[in-house]
Amino acid sequence: MLRQLPQITDPNVLVGAATSDDAAVYRIHDDLAMVVTVDFFTPVVDDPYDFGRIAAANSLSDIYAMGARPVIALNLVGYPSRSLPLDMLGEILRGGAEVAQEAGCAILGGHSIDDEEPKYGLVCIGFVHPERMTPNVGARAGDRLVLTKPLGIGILATAIKRDRATPGQIEAAVRNMTTLNAAAAEVVREMMERGKGESPIHAVTDVTGFGLLGHLSEMTRGSGVGARLSASAVPVLDGVWDLAGEGVIPGGTKRNAEWLGECVRWSDEIPEPLRWTLYDAQTSGGLLISVAEDHAGDLAERLRERGTLAAAIIGEITEGPDCVLIVEE
């Protein structure tokens, strides 16, 4: 579908749709670029305040993945005003506003329409130095892959909808989805800026709807490389494997598996529940960072010091062919 759009020729467009990145970048002048992204979706939890918080954190995530600082945002709202109370919409907006405030981002207004099902998200704008942006391409063979949040949100969200999740699992899911990627992004910026010479950070993406393997495949395709993951090193939320083994699999996760097809090569030892987890469609997931091998341990340690929900070295970038993701035990 994107092939039908006119080709971008403006040299100030630094990141467009060509590499499947989740944010666009436009150079304003040599020292400043604007990062723009938009995201919205239907509720993934029952509580409207938490839904607003989750949607805002998810929308802001693409700004952080690009190495930028969020500055302003606009609300996007679809709401069935004739069938649901407006107080509920107020709680959604309150949750979104609180997370935006935590990010230092001002919500300046927005747009709403009457819709059959609630939908909420943000248009987000941030700024970054053009030489310090972190697109999802540029990974190099030998890099290590570092993940900053555990997986399993899609499976847990489906369990919540089916009344299969425990109170502890619901609490963990909400905490995971409402935690901003600000701390991880700040660590990445510091590692890019400190010292002299070339940055050890080569590519960054956030893990959202296409799951860990889907977003990693975009990174490898765009970079002309492959990847090898250690499944046992990937952090996973408690109870997710059990739920996946019981068939609690969201439709988006199944579509990710179909879409990736033979791009993924599995070791025979990897059980099916773990495979589903690596395909799992995430909401407001963590950052996936491709970092030079000799800086991976330093990056993980700095992430742990900043309190990110995970700081796991989960694999490495390999020589091509691109989009061959080998998953080992």
Nutshell version of this structure?
Helix content is 35%, strand content 25%.
The helix-and-strand class reads alpha+beta
**Helix proportion of residues, in percent?**
25-40%
Name of the CATH superfamily of the largest domain? PurM-like C-terminal domain
Alpha-carbon Rg, integer:
19 Å
What's the mean pLDDT score?
95
Strands, count? 13
* Largest sheet descriptor: 7 strands, mixed
Shape: globular
Strand content: 25-35%
CATH architecture of the largest domain: Alpha-Beta Complex
Order of helices and strands: EEEHEHEEEHHHEHEHHEHEHEE
What's the structural blueprint in terms of helices and strands?
Blueprint: E1 13-15, E2 24-29, E3 32-41, H1 48-65, E4 69-79, H2 86-102, E5 106-114, E6 119-128, E7 144-147, H3 153-161, H4 167-178, H5 182-193, E8 201-206, H6 211-223, E9 226-230, H7 240-245, H8 251-260, E10 264-266, H9 272-279, E11 287-291, H10 296-305, E12 312-318, E13 325-328
Helix pairs in contact: 1-2, 3-4, 6-8
